[in-house]
Amino acid sequence: MLLLAPTVLALAALTVYPGVWVLWLSLQHRIPIFEVSRFAGLDNYAFLAVDPRFLNAGRATAIFTVASVALEVVLGLTAALAIHAQRGGRRLALSFLLLAWAMPAVVTAKLFEWLYHPTAGLINVALGARSLNWLGDPGLALPAVVLADVWRTMPFVAILCYARLLAIPAELYEAAQVDGAGRLATLTRITLPMLGRILLVAVLFRTLDALRAFDIMFVLTGGGPAGMTETLTVYAYRALFQTLQLGFGSAVSVVVFLLVMAVAWAYLKFLRAGTTVAA
Amino acid sequence: MRRPARRIGTLGDVVVLGALAAYAIPFFWQLLTSFKPEAELLRVPPLLPSRLTLAHYRVVIEQSLMPQALGNSLGVATITTLLALVIGLPGAYAVARLPLPGKHLLLLAIVASTAFPQIATVSPLYLLMRALDLRDTWAGLVLVHTSFALPLTIWLLAGFIREVPIETEEAAAVDGAGLLGIFRWVVIPLLAPGLASTALLAFLFSWNEFLFAYTFTVSGASRTVPVALALFPGVFEVPWGDIAAASMLASVPPVLIVIVLQRFLVRGLVAGAVKE
After folding, report:
1. pTM score, whole prediction
2. Residues B61-83: tens digit of each pLDDT
3. What are phi and psi of B3, to 5 degrees?
4. Architecture of A63-230 per CATH?
5. ipTM of the predicted structure?
6. CA distance B129 to A6
7. Residue A279 clears pLDDT 60, i.e. is over it
8. Between the N and C ends of chain A, which has fewer C-beta atoms within 10 Å?
C-alpha cells in the first residue's frame, strides 16, 4: 500500500480532483474579470443545446475524427505491410515514419502552414500554377488540417501493425504456402485476421486522440476560416481563456470529456466481446 | 525460410524506402527552408537555394525567446520524467506483483486517466495554479505534466515488470533479500530497457505538450518550446525562415531519439498498446 500512496495522491490531486471540479464549474456562471460567480444549474448546458457555434464545433470534431482515423488506419496498414515486406533498410524506413510522429504537433502545424502557403507553398507548387488558399478557403481548411494530422499520426498506426506483423509465426505462412495459397489469399486469410485486434486498439487510441486534438488546429488555423475548423476543444479553449467564461467553457469541455469516456467505454465493451467470441 | 510476403526484391525495397523518404518531405523541406537566404524564400521554383545561410538560426538564437524556451523544455521534461519514474516505479511494482484489494479498480482509474482529455482539466488546474501561485513556474508545469506522464509510466512499467520472471525474485527472497534489496538488485537491472522506453516516452510527451504549457506560462521564465514556436513573433510579415529554424531547433531532441534510441521508442509504443 505504501508503494502506491504517492501514485494515488498524485492522481487524486491532478486528475480526479480537477475532474470533479470541472463538473462543478460547468454548473456556474463564472466570469472572473467581471467578478461574476454564481450557481447556474444546467443553464450552460441548456444554452449549448441551442448554440449554433457548439453544433458547428461538434460537426467539425466529427468530420475531423472520422476522416483522420480512417485515413490513418488505411495508410498505416499499407505502410506496415510495405515495411514488413522489405528485405533491407527497415530501420531507415521506420526512421522516416517516426520522424513525423515524434515532433511536437506545434512543429507539424508550422511545417504545414509553410507547405500550404498560397504562392510559395510546396503543395501549390507541386499542383502547378493554381494557387489554392488552403487555410483561407472554408472548403479546404478542414481537409488541410486533417491531412496535417494524418501525416503526424499515421506512423503510430503503422508501428503498431508492423510490430504485430513481426509476431506472426512463420509456420503459418509456410503452411499456407504448402496449401497452395496465393499472395492475396495469404493476405486476406492470414495477415489481416491476425492484425484485427491490434487495429482495433490502434483505432481506439487514435479516436480518443482525435476527439481531444487541439494543438494542430489551434496553431494551424486557430479554428478559422469562419469556424470551419473550430472543433469542440478549440471552442472550449476560446470560451475559457479568450472570452474568460470559466463556467460556460467548462461545460463545453465536460462534453468533450463525456464523449471521450463514452467512446473508450464502447470500444472496451466491443474489444471484450470480440475476445469472448474468439475464445 | 522465405516468406511469400517478402518476395518483392531489391527494386521493391528501393520503392518503399523512396516512398517513405517522400513521406518525410514536409520535415526536410522545413530543414532546407531554415538554411535558405531570406530573398529566395518566396520565390519557388527553383526548389533549391543558390546558397545556404545560417542567418535564420542567428536571428532565432540572438533575438527570440527560443534559447530560453529550449532550456525550460529540457528542464521541465527531464524533471517530469524523473518524478514520474520515482513515483511510478513503486506503484507499478505494487500493481504488477502484490495482491491488493481493489487493484482492478485502481488499474481502471489509471487507464482512464491516460484517456483524460486535457481540455477537461485545464480550467480547474488553471484555478489551482493561480491559487498556489504556480503560474509561469517550472514547478507548475512539472506538476501538470506529471498528471499524464505518471499514468503512462505506471501502465508501461507494470507491463515490463510482469515480463521479469517472478522466479528470479523468489530466488532472491529465498537468499534473504528484502523487498528493497530485490528491487535494487533484481528488478531494476532486468527492467533497465523497459525503464529507458518509458522514460523516453514520458520525456517526449512532456517536450511536445502544448495545451497546458500555453495556458500556464506567461513569460520566458517558463515558456516551453512548443509555446515559443506557436507565439513566434512576426512584426510586419511572417518570418518563414526564422520559424523554420526555430522549428528545427524544437525538433532536435525528438529527432535524436528517433535516430539513436529508435529501438526503445518502438518497444515503448508497442508495449503501451498491447498490454491489457
Report:
1. 0.92
2. 999 999 999 999 999 999 999 99
3. -80, 145
4. Orthogonal Bundle (1.10)
5. 0.91
6. 20
7. no
8. C
Is the separation of the CB atoms in B273 and A197 below 8 Å? no
Residue B186 pLDDT exceeds 50: yes
B window 72-131, beta carbon within 8 A of A: 87-88, 90-91, 93-95, 98, 100, 106, 109-110, 112-113, 115-128
* Alpha carbon of A246: minimum distance to chain B alpha carbons (Å): 7
Grid cell locating A111 = 511545417
> A28 in helix, strand or coil?
strand
CA distance A249 to chain B (A): 8
Q: Containing H/E element for A89?
A: none
Q: What is the largest CA-CA distance in chain B?
A: 74
Contact between B33 and A114 using a beta-carbon 8 Å cutoff: yes
Give the pLDDT of residue B4. Answer: 47
Q: Which amino acid is at A80?
A: A
Chain B CB contacts of A112 below 8 Å: 26
Would you say A218 and A205 are in contact if contact means Cβ atoms under 8 Å apart?
no
**How far is C-alpha A69 from the chain's CA centre?**
7
| Nearest one of A220, A154, A201 to B115, comparing CA atoms | A201
Run of H or E residues at A33? none
Q: Please list every residue in chain B whose beta carbon sits closer than 8 Å to the beta carbon of residue A212.
A: 117-119
| B202, B84 contact by CB (below 8 A) | yes
